[in-house]
Amino acid sequence: MPDPFEPRIVAFFCNWCTYLAADLAGTSRLKYAPNVRVVRLMCSGRVDAQFVLEAFARGADGVLIGGCHPGDCHYQEGNYKALRRFHLLKRLVRDMGIEEERIRLEWISASEGEKVKSVINDMVEKVRALGPFTVQVAEDRALEEVTA
Amino acid sequence: MLRPDEWGSSVRIGVYVCHCGTNIAGTIDVKGVAEYSATLPGVALAREYKYMCSDPGQELIREDIREHNLDRIIVAACSPCLHEKTFRHATEQGGLNPYYFHMVNVREHDSWVHVDKKAATEKAMDLVRAAVRRVRLHRPLERRQVPIKPDVLVVGGGIAGIHAALTLANAGKHVYLVEREPTIGGHMAQFDKTFPTLDCAACILTPKMTAVKMHPNITLWTLSEVTGVDGYVGNYTVTVKRKPRYVLEDLCVGCLECIEACVYKQGKVSDEFNLGLSKRKPIYISFPQAVPQIVVIDPETCIEFKSGKCKKTCVEICADRNAIDFHQQEEIKTIEVGTIILGTGFEVFDAKRIPYYGYGVYPNVYTAMEVERLVNASGPTGGEIVLRDGRKPNSVGIIHCVGSRDEHTNRYCSRVCCMYSLKLAHLIKERTEAEVYNFYIDMRTAGKGFEEFYNRVAGEGTHLIRGKVADVCPGANGDGHLMVQVEDTLLGMVRKIPVDMVVLATGLEAQRDAQEVRRLFNIGCSSEGFFLERHPKLAPVNTFTEGIFLAGCCQGPKDIPDTVAQAGAAAAESLALIDAGAVELEPNTAHILEEVCSGCKTCIPLCPYQAISFVLDKSKAEINEVLCKGCGTCVAACPSGSILQNLFEDQEIFEEIEGLLTYA
Amino acid sequence: MSDKPKVAFYWCASCGGCEEAVVDLEEKILDVVAAVDIVYWPVALDFKRHDLEAMPNGSVVATFLNGAIRTTEQEEMARLLRRKSQLLFAFGSCSQSGGIPGLANLWDRESIFRTAYSESPSTANPDGTLPQRVSRENGDALSLPGFFDTVQTLDQVVDVDYYVPGCPPTPKILLAALDALLNGKLPEKGAVLAPDQALCEECPRKESRPEQLSLAEFKRPHQVLIDEATCLLAQGLLCFGPGTRAGCEALCVKGNMPCTGCFGPTSRVKDFGGKALSAMASVAAGKDEAEIGRAFENIPDPVGTFYRYSLPSSLLRRKRLEAGR
Q: Could you tell me the CA-to-CA distances from B383 to B367, B396, B585 in Å, in that order?
């Protein structure tokens, strides 16, 4: 029996809300899937689309962005910028043939430890169902030839 | 950019993996992670240790830096929100720039939340590997020092705000105490006696209120609200709106004759202080010992405001002082303070939300706060416990946990209700000799002297019935009784107890505008709506915004002793900041690379703190480092990548991502 | 044999515009020809591949190679020219980052062949004939280069020394590159031979961009009566000037059209499209899905818009191929 596919998900969490919520999930000893690796940023507004693309290019199967609820950003409006970028990024990523469920933006406030657990568990299962994200190195495909 | 084969030669990283007792070691193979770390390029040494945050743990770091010539430090342990500062300090003490340190969270984000030990260990390794890649690029940053303004703003004039203000004022600091109501005193002023000592609330509160008024270091602004907060720790600029009382504070001596002289011979408007149990006139004072002892005119109900045609007998009687001014305007004040303490208190749970207790439907169902006013000698009934129809009750039922410990309303316990319900039981028995029944789920009397108080009240013949009341309804035989239906779980049977009066022990909730207030001050709220503390055990009065502190029930339900203790703690935290003289700002700010900025102006409108400006003569953008709070939004937006954010540079983040996913 | 430095020009998957760029030097080409010996230039001179192969390795001082790599022949020629040259210049957007041909990375060989040889409206190919690698007839064998699924940039195939950006590079940029080469003023290896600053720096409309710009919606050029003096972004058009290297003197903007990014990103940006997206999205207004959707409604093709010249050089390189292919 081959090992079941374990997705690797990179998460960008904002320091003031989602990162704290994940800490809260920890202090509350909630249990969730171990497939997520968090990159800590000060604000979801710091998330550059390049980071998301880099994660996929390096082999991530999914990318999760966590920020404060609209209206509650610690820096006033950073999360709105994140929302606008995410909207366009989602379309770009879809047009690049990447399934929608692989990229996700969630608003999680500092007291929502349970939400961290449920979002991560949900995303891991959805990405698991999609299978691994193949990093397409051109060399593999490029050397195929049409044979006579 | 260094090639992978060059990494090893450029830095000497020390990696420390903490056991945290069994908190981390119980799930993660700490030894394995340390051994793995030692194999990573650039890692000069890797250790495991039981408690890195302890003194010997920190000493390890300090010694190793010196002995092994380390130039980067990584600690894999708890959350950086907890100990990043600790280890940065240790790094600094070891002789390295503190920002050459990076923390990896393998506890809150790993060992505490995962069950599969192998997966948890692998995750820890991934995270350490990412940190090793990232920390190589860290720069030696300097903290910026800014002076701290010495004044303090205290918002809320209840017992919390009063105690904090007095403590600070006594320490020689100038305090602005801003209170929304026309008087300070808060909810405590409405109480009659306080548990467990049965001290008269007014007797212990009013001296403090007077002290506030008299203190040369306190500027007291009542009928005032904070409308704007700008700035950062040590340097807050706050706008306060002072609403007009239509009575000049400097001239009014509090003789109250104007109230007597008012054209209304009797009270006309629901008296808020007495919770609607009595009426007041449009010109009034909240209660006789109000501070400031200055009358207020309510423009919504005063005839002069509504029609302009009043005889103004109040003005007549005040002819010698001329303190009444119908043209008084609202004033906007701007103050500069270094720290802010929030003591905005609580709101009582609205008993109408539990319709089966009949509040608002049956006249003889009261809330506990209403009964406080009844038993109070200066209340609407002069201290007599009288029902709305004038009768004295012969039997009273006190229902605990109304709007608390309840899945349908509030899940939390409001902490004070058992004690005040016992207190009311005692006071009612004292004044009326009625039969008193307390219906409780659990009896929570944990404080000093509380258990003894409980025994005393039990000994006085109060009936203590363990059961959650299911229903309150009028008795069937129309004799004016209310039937309280409850399952007495100690007796194991359902009882229907007729009483003349039902008292609902309503719980404490966050103020209804808590969300707006917290946004104003840029702090957070917990899921129950109370202001969020930085750490429930170790930092109960701090918030996540430096320089803003919490005191009292705005942070969560608590009694007067705990409120006063917290207010003192908040004052101490303020003093610690102010007396340090200067505050250090974290260097995770952004700066523009001037030589390569093209002046495209994309960044200018993005900063909510207006930290970015366009310098016309250079035709480039510039960031004011002091105003920058380090969110990084402009960094992501700069189309040519010409803005760098200290500690969160693009390259550092790319390295971290790469480290998470690719094996060294 | 002359002592003049030997120089070669070659084209891969490109449109021929870069060859035009050399010719666009007009009379200055005479100076160039006077200073160098062009030993290989299929479009203009008659040297053959075997002539090139006969040269000693490293005997060509510089090769200017334009076009992306998408056939086996192009890859072979790139490697050959690399061997024969001391310095290899990726000339133009296609060789630097994939260029317009790079957008083929949204498809694969099979779908491209199907469109080109069967499904396009003007094609009549009832037998479904497709190009073959080898074709034999009357005892002779003819071969065609292999056609890759994925377009690559030059530096994804061989080591590249310098990049001369542009679609095509302007005469000025080309002359500057030649001048640097001939006078030993080349910067460190790997550099892009254009300023490391965004186009706004040299844009004549820079001052007209307001400091507080926030767009309720972006527009496409045909939807706007484009004013000739005002900043194009301020008029709602997706001008990539703020994210594109300067050096072209804002030719397109002077022609009243928004910059499309052909000079590529500055050295501080890793993925042109990702950064451009982050930047342009920051100019948009909107606080909820509906408002934000409206702001971006007139960007029907995000990949084509943000990766117009740079898809093969992007982090993802290409659209995911279907599983099993």
A: 16, 16, 55
- Which residue is associated with the tokens 């918030």? B543
* ipTM of the complex in this document: 0.94
Mean pLDDT of B235-248: 96
Q: How far is A19 from chain C (nearest CA, A)?
A: 22
Query: For residue C132, which residues of chain A lie inside 8 Å, CB to CB?
Result: 146, 148
To the nearest whole angstrom, how far is the Cα of B62 from the nearest Cα of chain C?
A: 36
B657 touches chain A (CB under 8 A): yes
Q: Is the model's pLDDT at A27 over the cut of 90?
A: yes
Give dist(CA A93, CA A53) in Å, integer.
9
pLDDT in tens, B329-355: 999 999 999 999 999 999 999 999 999
Integer angstrom CA distances of residue B100 from B40, B41, B145, B233, C69: 18, 17, 19, 25, 43
User: CB distance C266–B641 less than 8 Å?
Assistant: yes
Which residues lie across from B367 on neighbouring strands? B504
B334 beta partners? B239
- How much is the pTM? 0.83
Mean of pLDDT values over B140-160: 95
Quick one: pLDDT at residue C323? 54
**What domains sit in chain C, N to C, each tagged with a CATH number?**
6-100+151-182 (3.40.50.700), 111-148 (no CATH), 199-306 (no CATH)
Residue numbers in A near B22 (CB within 8 A): none
At B571, give phi and psi (nearest 5°). -60, -40
B122 touches chain C (CB under 8 A): no
User: Is 70 exceeded by the pLDDT of residue A147?
Assistant: no
Percentage of chain B surpassing pLDDT 90?
A: 88
User: In b/e form, how buried is each residue of A114-144, taking b as 16+ CB within 10 angstroms?
Assistant: bbbbbbbbebbebbbebeebeebebeebbee
- Those chains having 3 or more beta-carbon pairs within 8 angstroms of chain C are A, B
Find all residues with CB under 8 Å of C55, minimum gap 6, and list them: C6, C39, C84
Q: Which of residues 101-130 of A touch C (CB under 8 A)?
A: none
Q: What is the DSSP string of B226-267?
A: EEEEEEETTEEEEEEEE---SB-TTT-----HHHHHSS-SS-
Q: Which of residues 596-635 of B touch C (CB under 8 A)?
A: 596-602, 604-606, 614, 619, 633
What is the average pLDDT score of chain B?
94
Interface subset of A 27-86, CB within 8 angstroms of B: 27, 29-32, 34, 37-43, 45-48, 50-51, 54-55, 58-60, 71-72, 74-78, 81, 85
Q: Give the pLDDT confidence of B100-120 residue by residue, as tens digits.
A: 999 999 999 999 999 999 999
pLDDT digits 0-9 by tens, B198-212: 999 999 999 999 999
The whole-angstrom separation of Cα B416 and Cα B553 is 11
Task: Give the one of B80, B114, B631 whose C-beta lies nearest to A78's C-beta.
Answer: B631
User: Both tokens of residue B100?
Assistant: 């050459």
- B503 vs C33, which has greater pLDDT? B503
Check CB contact of C276 with chain B, cutoff 8 Å. yes
Instruction: Give the pLDDT score at A143.
Output: 43
Percent helix, strand and coil across chain C, each rounded to 5?
35, 15, 50
Tell me the chain A residues in contact with residue C107 when contact means C-beta distances shorter than 8 Å.
Answer: none
Q: Is the pLDDT of residue A142 over 50?
A: no
Q: Does A69 touch chain C (CB under 8 A)?
A: no
**pLDDT reported for residue B231:** 87
**Which regions of chain C are under pLDDT 70?**
1-2, 322-325
CB contact under 8 A, A38 and B656: no
- pLDDT (tens digit, 9 = 90+) per residue, B318-329? 999 999 999 999
Partners of residue C106 in chain A, C-beta under 8 Å: 95-96
Instruction: Please give the order of strands across the beta sheet that includes A9-14.
Output: A36-41, A9-14, A62-67, A103-107
